[in-house]
Amino acid sequence: MGLGELRGVVALDGPSGTGKSSAARRLAASLGARYLDTGAMYRAVTLAVLRAGVDPADAERVTEVARTLRLVQGSDPQRSTTTLDGTDVGTDIRGPEVTLAVSPVSAVPQVRELLVAQQRAIIAAALEDAGGIVVEGRDIGTVVVPDAELKVYLTADAQARAQRRTRQDNASGRTSTVDATLADVQRRDAYDSSRAVSPLRPAEDAVELDTTSLDLAGVLAALVDLVEQRGLRVVAVGG
């Protein structure tokens, strides 16, 4: 991939169900930039922890698993891949068992330290190679890339987020109900917002974008507008 139109880092933070992942991928693809789903990395570690039979609340053993696995997170927005020890786990990491256990695993300080270092390396390589990258997660603007050129914190009404997540799950073949998803959304919000290390919160200089009444096209249009306002879009002139 050659240099795209985006220059710098766009950090997208916020809870699940705000349209963050779909918008981040679409924004990166439309600007010829790279894309990093940091949540997939925490889910991959969680999958490895579960497969090893380790209690997600056992921080010491969780850290041991995280240190020994070989995790590779792709940065192509057209095909974001997650592999563990050479095996694609993109589908497995979205299962309900992983969703239930990812918050305690993500709260382990040593796990965050390991993954943040890896995330920063991916971002640095993307900036050198493509010129820009869209990074999504829960601590991008506050911890991973605090000097990102654009930080956006996506929010949405909990009910709307639960409905989106349920549609996504059912479309992917994972049977779900709005009530069950709403309970899961609220549980993860409480856990992620109250953890001691890198809690879910907007960066002080983040632009807050409420996506409750916006569809994907609306969220994407708002993000492109913010990118252009910051002067981060470079369009080649002539041939």
Automatic annotation (TrEMBL):
<dbReference type="GO" id="GO:0005829">
    <property type="term" value="C:cytosol"/>
</dbReference>
<dbReference type="Pfam" id="PF02224">
    <property type="entry name" value="Cytidylate_kin"/>
</dbReference>
<keyword id="KW-0808">Transferase</keyword>
<protein>
    <recommendedName>
        <fullName>Cytidylate kinase</fullName>
        <ecNumber>2.7.4.25</ecNumber>
    </recommendedName>
</protein>
<keyword id="KW-0418">Kinase</keyword>
<feature type="binding site">
    <location>
        <begin position="14"/>
        <end position="22"/>
    </location>
    <ligand>
        <name>ATP</name>
    </ligand>
</feature>
<dbReference type="GO" id="GO:0005524">
    <property type="term" value="F:ATP binding"/>
</dbReference>
<dbReference type="GO" id="GO:0015949">
    <property type="term" value="P:nucleobase-containing small molecule interconversion"/>
</dbReference>
<dbReference type="InterPro" id="IPR027417">
    <property type="entry name" value="P-loop_NTPase"/>
</dbReference>
<dbReference type="InterPro" id="IPR003136">
    <property type="entry name" value="Cytidylate_kin"/>
</dbReference>
<dbReference type="InterPro" id="IPR011994">
    <property type="entry name" value="Cytidylate_kinase_dom"/>
</dbReference>
<comment type="similarity">
    <text>Belongs to the cytidylate kinase family. Type 1 subfamily.</text>
</comment>
<dbReference type="GO" id="GO:0036431">
    <property type="term" value="F:dCMP kinase activity"/>
</dbReference>
<keyword id="KW-0963">Cytoplasm</keyword>
<keyword id="KW-0067">ATP-binding</keyword>
<dbReference type="GO" id="GO:0006220">
    <property type="term" value="P:pyrimidine nucleotide metabolic process"/>
</dbReference>
<keyword id="KW-0547">Nucleotide-binding</keyword>
<feature type="domain" description="Cytidylate kinase">
    <location>
        <begin position="10"/>
        <end position="228"/>
    </location>
</feature>
